[in-house]
Specification:
The chain is an alpha/beta fold. The chain contains 18 helices and 18 strands. Helix 9 crosses helix 10, helix 10 packs parallel to helix 11 and helix 11 runs parallel beside helix 12.
Length: 503
């Protein structure tokens, strides 16, 4: 049996769905994208007196029925990587950061191409990060209009893992899709073996913006799976109560899902979200507030009742540094996500209200996510029922360290954390240098970057991707230099950098 978390009962889920469908039918959505709106009206969707597009319940039900219950992501080489559906859980770095917390200087600053390349090379080797994301912007050294495509290029040339991405401009999807198609035989092969998931953000207030509408339309036509991600802000633009907020959230997602299915029935869609709660004193939007986490688990329960694959922003922190708050918020929400069976969990590496990315936090989060995944494995007897033989052996030997049962099962049953997590006694810890969490995490970043092995990429594919990116620039300019793989740092250098950051 798999450990599970249940927040809503079946009767309440049914009421939430009924109310969401009633709102879609009677209030509808403001669809600001001209072409998508035209497609919806051509499909026969009615409009309200003020021009909002209405979604009759039978249309929504048909869309739910045609949405795949699961789909597979494939890596750069076309090999299956992650099955999204059921209770499969995959952790992926969060997206949309604006800055990095430099573990070498302690500075929080705008990110560069060099920062992003280090992130991709680090994430490529982390065992519990199932696939990557275009996690933070590199606008410090690349034109913003093509920064989304540039980050995708850096992912594709430095890692084989699939990637969660998205276009930050109204017509950015096409060039990014063309880049990914270079790693498939043709467009049909890219549809059959998707390399990426693109994020479509529901604007809130029952509205889809021009950019979101066009990106949704382009992704669906290219066959790129999408995650519909409302930023449901409890207490500000959505009810502060979990049931009311869940209704608002479900309305936004079902609208996006229905539009995708009208454009192309069978388009893969993740029922996602990035909810937050409005902090009544600080006037901030914590995504890791406990009420926001309740909303995450609640909307996922609704999605699972429909058999739909799911996504959520969890396993991250609103804190500013790699400290106790960051660890508690990340592991607590990662465990909730794993117990809820969320298929794609966006969060590792991110701090400060999804504004700042940290490489040391990413390596710690990889270990915390591994522990959460270990916890939710199926529970079943492991040659330990009946138990009398083990009772007799421990009484005779006074231990079970060398017992045949221990030797056979400990590699699977015991989770041994990475070096970033301290499990030493104090004496051994002191002999190893007495490093705190930040120092251990910084050391692990440097160790992994030094061990990174560059990938071979077809030079013709690289040249074509560079052409696609530069063609999208408003003014011709050289692309930023991509750094070579880092030289191995000495332990002394790494410790010195970590101590400077700690100060």
């Amino acid at each position: 049996m798999r450990p599970r978390l249940q927040l809503l009962d079946d009767a309440l889920i049914a009421r939430i769905l009924d109310e969401a469908k009633r709102i879609l039918a009677e209030v509808g959505m403001e669809v600001r994208g001209v072409e998508l709106r035209r497609r919806l009206l051509e499909a026969g969707l009615p409009t309200s007196a003020d021009g909002r597009v209405l979604f009759p319940p039978d249309v929504v039900d048909r869309a739910i029925a045609t949405t795949p219950k699961s789909f597979t992501l494939y890596d750069r080489d076309g090999q299956p990587c992650a099955e999204l559906g059921g209770d499969n859980v995959h952790f992926v770095p969060a997206s949309s950061g604006l800055k990095v917390l430099d573990h070498r200087s302690g500075e929080t600053r705008l990110a560069t191409t060099a920062d992003f390349v280090e992130y991709v090379r680090l994430g490529d080797g982390l065992p519990h990060i199932a696939y990557l994301a275009t996690a933070f912007s590199t606008n410090a050294d690349i034109e913003p209009g093509v920064s989304d495509a540039w980050r995708l290029f850096l992912c594709l040339t430095n890692s084989r893992k699939p990637v969660v991405s998205g276009a930050f401009t109204e017509h950015g999807v096409g060039r990014m899709a063309e880049m990914m198609q270079l790693f498939r035989r043709d467009r049909a092969d890219l549809i059959a073996r998707p390399l990426s998931i693109f994020t479509i953000t529901a604007t809130g207030m029952f509205r889809y913006s021009e950019d979101s509408c066009q990106n949704l339309l382009d992704c669906v036509e290219w066959g790129i799976p999408v995650e519909i991600v409302p930023v449901t802000l409890m207490g500000l633009i959505a009810p502060v109560s979990v049931v009311g907020a869940t209704v608002f959230h479900v309305v936004d997602v079902l609208a996006g899902l229905t539009m995708a299915q009208i454009v192309r029935p069978g388009a893969p869609v993740l029922f996602g979200g990035a909810p937050a709660e409005f902090h009544m004193r600080a006037a901030t939007s914590p995504m890791l507030g406990i009420q926001a986490l309740r909303l995450d688990v609640a909307y996922v329960a609704v999605a699972k009742s429909l058999g739909l694959p799911t996504q959520a922003y969890m396993a991250l922190s609103d804190g500013k540094f790699l400290d106790a708050q960051a660890g508690a918020e990340t592991f607590g929400s990662a465990l909730l996500a794993a117990l809820a069976g969320i298929n794609s969990v966006s969060g590792p590496g991110m701090l400060d209200f999804v504004l700042t990315f940290s490489l040391p936090k990413l390596v710690l989060d990889d270990d915390l996510c591994g522990q959460a995944l270990h916890f939710v494995r199926d529970v079943a007897p492991a040659d330990d029922l009946p138990t009398m033989a083990l009772v007799r052996e421990v009484m005779a030997e006074q231990h079970l360290i060398t017992a045949a049962h221990t030797m056979a099962h400990w590699p699977d049953e015991l989770y041994l954390p990475a070096a970033v997590t301290d499990r030493e006694n104090r004496e051994n810890w002191q002999r190893a240098g007495g490093k705190d969490l930040l120092q251990r995490a910084a050391d692990e970043v440097e160790r992994r970057l030094a061990a990174y092995e560059p990938l071979d990429t077809d030079p013709l594919a690289v040249a074509e991707m560079e052409r696609i990116i530069t063609a999208g620039m408003s003014a011709p300019a050289p692309l930023p230099a991509v750094p070579a793989a880092a030289a191995r740092a000495t332990t002394t250098d790494t410790r010195r950098r970590a101590r400077r950051f700690a100060r």
